[in-house]
Structures are given as structure tokens and as C-alpha cells.
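Sample A.
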Amino acid sequence: MSLILKKKEASRPARRAPAPKPPRSAPAPGKRPRRGLVILVTGDGKGKTTSALGQALRALGHGYRVCMIQFMKGRKYGELLAAERFLPGLTIHLSGLDSFVMRDRPAPVDVEMAHEGLALARREMLSGAYDLVILDEINVAVDFKLIPLKDVLDLIAEKPPALDLILTGRYAAPELIAAADTVSEIREIKHHYAAGVKDRAGIEY
């Protein structure tokens, strides 16, 4: 690089970091309020949580603020580590233990933590601090009888009009499918587990 170019670059004023954008739940004066959606991702294939995270990344790109509550999960998955290090607009709460949950006989602590997670989801959803709330594995929590189906339907009914809500997890109840605006089913065609490939950091967690 020539000395002239170096001098020109040195004379440029330093760029300031852009100020954080306010939540977009409240529409600007004169604009039609945006309609928040209820999106449900279910099915036995891999990719339900990662689908929701892709939606979160897209929302963050437009300055939206995103909150994810992960039910039945207690490990710091890669998305939580990334949020802590690189994504200040994404808040992730864990609402479970890093252990297997018995479908027919869930431990009292699993039920308690799922109820706490749902109460937290309701507070965050109604706080006005977020534009998108993701309830990760909520469908499984309902199917495992950790949370009553009616409580989740009531939560959907309370959703602020402009807020987007995503529900993930296999075993989605028909009532939740009916309550959603958009439903996607991820079907397993082939999985590397069948070939004996173990779960990997950055792929499964």
C-alpha cells in the first residue's frame, strides 16, 4: 500500500458503532401495526431448534430483540455460548436439567422447572422487551405431561398482537397445530446416529 493511501485512511474519522435499535413491537406513528405470527416446527427429523435459531438470526439482522426459553435442557448448547459472546440481542434461558426425562414418570424437579420456564416465558412475552419469543422443545414438555396443554394454549391467546412466537419440538399436539399460523414438519429420512456416529459439539449441541 502506498504512503498516500495510508495517509488518506488515517485521516478518515473513526466509525461509531450503531446505536442499538429499540424493540419493534410498537409501530411507528402512521404505520400499520405488524401482525405477529405463531410458528410451530415439529416432526421426528433433526433441525427443529436450529430452524428456530435461523429465524432468530434473521430477526436479529433487522434489529429485533429475541428471547429463547429452552425447556428440558440444562446444558450450555452452542447457541447459548454464541449468544453470550456475539449476539447481545439474543437472550437464552435454560429451563431444565442436563439429564434424561422419563416420559411416563417425570421427576418432580423436571415438572417444577418446566412450570418455572412457562411462567418465565409469559413474563418475557408480556414485558414488551422482545419482538420474538421462542419456546424451544415446548411441544415435548407438553407431550411428557410436564406442562398442561391448556396453559400453553392460554399463553398463545395472551400473546401481544405484534409479537412473533415460535414453538418447537416433536409430538406437537393437534390443538397447538390448530392455534399456529405456520406449521412445518421436519421428517427424518436419514440420520447419522443410525451409522453409529455419536453426537457432536456444533452439530447436536
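Sample B, a different protein:
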Amino acid sequence: MAAERNAPGSSGQGQTGTVANTATSAPGEMTAEAKAEEASKLVDRFAIWSGAAGLIPVPIVDLVAVGGLQLQMLRRLSQIYGVPFTENRGKALITSLMGAAIPTTSGLGAAEFLKAIPVFGTIISSFVTPVLAAGATYAIGKVFIQHFSTGGTLLDFNPPDYREFLKGQKDMWVKRSASGTTSHAGSGATSS
């Protein structure tokens, strides 16, 4: 029935999700470019969700939510690249990768401390935590895309090998966030 809906000449509206899910379930049939594109979109989506989870005003709860999103992102990236996934190994790798990004993790820790201060601390941390959580998730996702696209697995992943790559991704996130704010603000204007 899905084949009839996607037949040439049919509108095919509403079927994009079905096709994308089929592509995800058969990683061997996707080209390297298609995998990279799908993985990048996935990382972008999880970065946004992590930023939203960073808005949770309760200390520690937001970090647990962000960690859960990062683990789910790693699971989905593993599916895209056909890499066997184990939850315990995924948790350990994300934790050790976050340890390799000391400035980001210390920033998240400071933001968590601020949430414990009534009113002002919560307000300040509501600006800082979402950005740090989204940036960390984005960088982690890009690291695993890089690793998986070169044939790596969860078993041969070594976080210290990706320190410089992680710093570069963090810088890219900062630039992207800054340009995204200005491009969205001016997207309604037409150029003369």
C-alpha cells in the first residue's frame, strides 16, 4: 500500500517520514552522503532538544534529561551507521568525552550551582544552561559522526583522540548560534 502511495505521479505527501524511517532501518543501503546528512539533521534536532532540557529549573534533573538525550542520540547515530550499540558502553563514552571537554562541563556545573540560588541564580542559569547543553550535545554528535563515518565502533572509540576535533565543533557551534540569531532576524527582509 505504501508503494502505491509513492508511485510516480502520486502526490506522495505525508510519506516522507515512512521513506526516511525505511532508510534508517537499512543502513547498508544508504550512501555515505545520505548517512552524513541524516546524522547531521539528527544531531541538530537533539542539540535543540538538549537546549530545551537545559531550561528545566530543577538542579540535576536537567543534566539527567540532557544525558538521556545524548545517549538516545548516540543510539540513533549507531543505527544510521550500522554500529552495534550497548547502553553501558554509550554512557561511559559520553561521560569520558564530556571529561575531555573540561570547559563545557565545568560551565554546566557552575550553571547547576546557580540554580540552587533562589530567583537570580535560576534566571542566570536559564540563559547559560540551555546554550551549554545544546553546544555539548552538538559537539558530541559531530564527534561520533566523524568516528562512525571512518569505520569506527563504540569499542575502538578513544575520547582523548577527539579533543581537538571537539574544540573545533564547540567553536563551530558558537559561530553557528551567533549567525543563526542574526539570519533568523533578517530572514523576512528582501534584498534590493
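Observation for Sample B: The chain has one domain: 31-178.
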